[in-house]
Amino acid sequence: MEILIVEDEQEIAQLIKQTLVTEGFSCRIANNGLTALDIFKQQQPDVVILDLMLPGLDGLEVCTRIRQQPYEKDPYILMLTARGEEIDRVIGLSTGADDYLVKPFSPRELVARVRALLRRSLRHGVQEDNSQTYRTKHFTVDLDQHVATRQLESQTAEELDLTTLEFNLLSTFLSYPGRVWSRTQLIDKLWGNDFFGDERVVDTHIRRLRKKIEPDAANPTFIKTVVGVGYKFEDDNQF
Ligand code: CA
Question: How far is CA 180 from CA 145, 159, 174, in A?
Fold first, then answer.
């Protein structure tokens, strides 16, 4: 698996590279957008880790140009941003980035995110698998059986009593731990295109789900609010 890291801050670029090389990925670094596009023309990577704030061509422009290239392999693009509000802008522009990670992030978070992208890419290559189970440290969702379980302090798992909507919301979160979801994206996942109404309805369902899965709903451990953007689910995952 080939990864291209586009980041002008040397220290961050090296840290990302070291982390991914340790995990067995092959990495190249570009310090600016033009170099990134040059490298891209020579050999298309599977994943591009793309910093938003770059000198010259910024991350959005690089992302757009990569997407315009008529290459066989369409890479997954993980955008790095410094602040939550930038994510909002990136999502709003729908540049074609597949995922977003807000700095500062832990190496473990980065690796989990890259693996999640590659898992998606593998899934595209094979027949869609309908028997699917998502697992994080404390939660399991079995889409086949439509059963969600939680495991907290004790060793025993308890089945969660969720409405269909809450179940789908939890499955969405578990399918992609650590990913930031905007309300619009969650609405697309949960209601599809037939949704007409106030997108704050998402908040109501999040509140109900938190009451059922959080040890302290007022102080959420798992479903985190990302100010100005939406929500993300955090739990140690299986990697
Ligand atoms: Ca930068």
Answer: 27, 26, 12
The residues with which 159 forms a beta bridge, in sequence order, are 149
What's this model's pTM, rounded to 2 decimal places? 0.55
Query: Beta-carbon neighbour count of residue 160 at 10 Å?
Result: 18
Ligand 1 centre distance from Cα of residue 12 (Å): 9
Q: What is the pLDDT of residue 105?
A: 86
Q: In angstroms, what CA-CA distances link 28 with 34, 36, 155? A: 14, 9, 43
Domain final position from 90, 124, 158: 124
Give the number of domains in the chain: 2
Per-residue pLDDT reduced to its tens digit, 27-38: 999 999 999 999
Instruction: Print the domain residue range for 27.
Output: 2-124
Residue 105 alpha carbon to ligand 1 centre in Å = 14
Closest Cα to residue 89, out of 50, 59, 62? 59
- Distance, in Å, from the CA atom of 87 to the CA atom of 90, rounded to the nearest integer, reads 5
| CB 32 within 8 Å of CB 57 | yes
**Ligand 1 centroid distance, CA of 13 (Å):** 10
Average pLDDT of the chain is: 84
Where do the DSSP E strands lie in 120-185?
Answer: 133-135, 139-142, 147-150, 158-159, 180-182
